Amino acid sequence: MSNVSKTGKLYGVGVGPGDPELMTLKALRVLKDAPVIAAPKSSNIDADSNALEIIKGSIGVEGKVILELGLPMTKDRAVLKAGRDKAAAELAGMLEKGLDVAFITLGDPMLYSTFSYLVPLVRERLPHARVEAVAGVTSFCAAASAAMLPLAEGSESVAIEPCAYKLEDVRRALKTSDTVILLKVNKALDGIIKLLEEESLLNNAVFVSRASCSDAEIVTDLKTLKGRDAGYFSLIIVKKGSI
Ligand SMILES: C[S@@+](CC[C@H](N)C(=O)[O-])C[C@H]1O[C@@H](n2cnc3c(N)ncnc32)[C@H](O)[C@@H]1O
């Protein structure tokens, strides 16, 4: 069994949606102190380089170990499991050396982040490993600010739906919630626009890409997006009532 006092600590650090000024003071401190920065590396080059780019301008990475973890973006369970097992073993290896590791994640580490899958796998290997999540500003909060669109007021409810799976789940959320945040919209954009038309909600939706970045885009006429590759960093907020 590992020696708890000598084992490093694993941090899941939310680096925010893109604007480095939206990184928290705590994220900055943890990233500055940690000798190892772990970053997911998948087939989605945009997503990977982005998290590292966000932090590079704010902390000196010279002298730190940058641990790129191969984590394929796929729905193939066996491939996913193999990638996560390997990544967890690499993280555990660093922790066993007594090194603290900061695993960087876009937005918040507790929202659709690989971090939450890796924690139990690391704990399988190091049951006493200390783990801490450092909350980050989420993409949809940044998008709501960019669009000046309150996500909820009074008794309104909010749902978050990933659009990489069944769009019928999105339809259900649209029927039952006052505000619906649609993430991972890039590959499903045309289907989402059709769905919003069917539910008479097209005029209640706003599309935001690269929220908080200098090249952020806000689109309120979603029909103009038909057939377009929206890019990975894009989402849609649907709010009943007027926008
Ligand atoms: C795997 S989820 C990660 C969510 C992230 N952990 C968070 O807290 O926002 C990735 C999705 O978040 C959304 N996203 C992330 N950053 C964004 C940004 N700057 N602007 C718009 N959407 C963004 C996109 O929908 C993207 O497909």
Entry keywords:
binds S-adenosylmethionine; 2 domains; 7 helices; about 240 residues; Cobalt-precorrin-4 Transmethylase, domain 1; Methyltransferase, Cobalt-precorrin-4 Transmethylase, Domain 2; five-stranded mixed sheet; alpha/beta; five-stranded parallel sheet; elongated
Per-chain topology:
Blueprint: E1 9-14, H1 25-33, E2 36-41, H2 45-56, E3 65-70, H3 77-96, E4 101-105, H4 115-125, E5 130-134, H5 139-147, E6 158-162, H6 167-176, E7 179-183, H7 189-198, E8 205-209, E9 217-219, E10 234-239
Parallel strand pairs: 1-4, 1-5, 2-3, 2-4, 6-7
Antiparallel strand pairs: 7-10, 8-9, 8-10
The structure holds S-adenosylmethionine.
Overview of the molecule:
The chain is of the alpha/beta class. The chain folds into two domains: 4-134, Cobalt-precorrin-4 Transmethylase, domain 1 (3-Layer(aba) Sandwich), CATH 3.40.1010.10; 139-239, 2-Layer Sandwich (Methyltransferase, Cobalt-precorrin-4 Transmethylase, Domain 2), CATH 3.30.950.10. The protein is built from seven helices and ten strands. The protein has helices at residues 25-33, 45-56, 77-96, 115-125, 139-147, 167-176, 189-198, and strands spanning 9-14, 36-41, 65-70, 101-105, 130-134, 158-162, 179-183, 205-209, 217-219, 234-239. The strands form two sheets. The chain has a five-stranded parallel β-sheet, sandwiched between helices. Helix 3 (77-96) packs across helix 4. The longest helix is centred in the middle third of the chain and has 20 residues, at 77-96. The radius of gyration is 19 Å and the shape is elongated. The N and C termini lie far apart (57 Å). The model has no long low-confidence stretch (mean pLDDT 92).
